[in-house]
Design brief:
By secondary structure, this protein is mostly helical. The protein contains 5 helices and 2 strands. The protein has a two-stranded parallel sheet with strand order 1-2. The longest helix is centred in the middle third of the chain and has 18 residues. The radius of gyration is 16 Å and the shape is globular.
Length: about 130
């Protein structure tokens, strides 16, 4: 699938969300990440790993963690709150992510990659500065 997408779209750069979780990280996700990286290498395409904290710091101004939501009891609720912040930022940018946290993370990662690797990229202002 990855090779087909690369052949069809001919990208200069592929960015993937880095697997997180330390010793508890999913072996399947780590292997999938490696496969995408290998296909890119085989095709001579630059591949970059995006750390979720770095992406969040760029996109919402802070590398949010569960510690930022002490008023919530469960880790699941805290993680949902983090995703909600990203979704709200996407909506503020005018991006329709349909309240899908995966789509919002992908959009945030895309924005970070553009800001990091594309010199002419500038996100549209969303107000509140003046």
């Amino acid at each position: 699938m990855t090779q087909g997408l690369i052949v069809h779209h001919k990208p200069d750069l592929v960015v993937g969300e880095a697997a997180i979780g330390g010793k508890n990280a999913s072996a399947f996700l780590i292997k999938l990440f490696g496969c995408v990286e290998a296909v890119c290498w085989n095709r001579g395409i630059k591949f970059e790993a995006a750390q979720s904290g770095t992406v969040r710091k760029h996109f919402v101004g802070k590398a949010l963690t569960t510690r930022d939501f002490p008023h919530l009891k469960s880790d699941k609720a805290k993680k949902a709150a983090i995703k909600d912040v990203v979704i709200r930022r996407c909506m503020a940018m005018g991006w329709d992510v349909d309240n899908d946290p995966d789509a919002a993370d992908a959009a945030a990662t895309w924005d970070w990659a553009c800001a990091t690797f594309c010199r002419s990229y500038q996100a549209k202002p969303v107000g509140g500065l003046f």
